[in-house]
Amino acid sequence: MNIEREKEFVHQFHYDARNLEWEKENGTPETNLNVQFQLVDNLEAFPETDTAISGMLSFVIVLENLLVSGHLSQLSYIRGEVIKEREQLDQDKMSELAAPLFDLLKRLTYEVTEIALDQPGINLEF
């Protein structure tokens, strides 16, 4: 698959220290990663032989003493392949499209936790 990508975009990234007392009363948050893809139409001067697709990653990651949450996206162009329905994307293609979003999430988490905790950052494993 020939993918041309635009730069990833950080819509939100939030770091929170966990409040265990609040969680006792209101419930413990759960880790949740949600990847979605949306076909994009109506792009000017866009070849009919290509497909534009927006990948979005929403996440809540609960760690021992903190949680990170947010929303990232990236517009990608699949060159030389027409995709009319999202169902045409198999798991390998979706993983390839989403990989830069997970890489950015890992980097953001590492660097923010390194600064916030004044120690080596937290490495996320996916």
Kindly describe this structure.
The protein has 2 helices and 5 strands. It has 126 residues and is of the alpha+beta class. The protein has one domain: SecB-like (Bacterial Protein-export protein SecB). Strands 1, 2, 3, 4 and 5 form a 5-stranded antiparallel beta sheet that branches.
Task: Name some characteristics of this structure.
126 residues; alpha+beta; Bacterial Protein-export protein SecB; five-stranded antiparallel beta sheet; 2 helices; 5 strands
What's the main sheet like?
Answer: 5 strands, antiparallel
Number of strands: 5
**Rg calc:** 17 Å
Tell me the count of domains.
Answer: 1
What is the CATH superfamily? SecB-like
Count of runs of 4 or more consecutive helical residues:
2
Write the CATH fold name.
Bacterial Protein-export protein SecB
Stretches where pLDDT is under 50 for at least 5 consecutive residues are none
Mean pLDDT: 93
Which bin fits the share of residues in helices?
25-40%
Q: Which band does the percent of strand residues land in? A: 35-45%
Q: Determine and state the CATH class.
A: Alpha Beta
- Give the helices and strands as they follow along the chain: EEHEEEH
What is the CATH architecture descriptor? Roll
The structure class reads alpha+beta
Determine the N-to-C terminus distance. 22 Å
Q: State the shape.
A: elongated
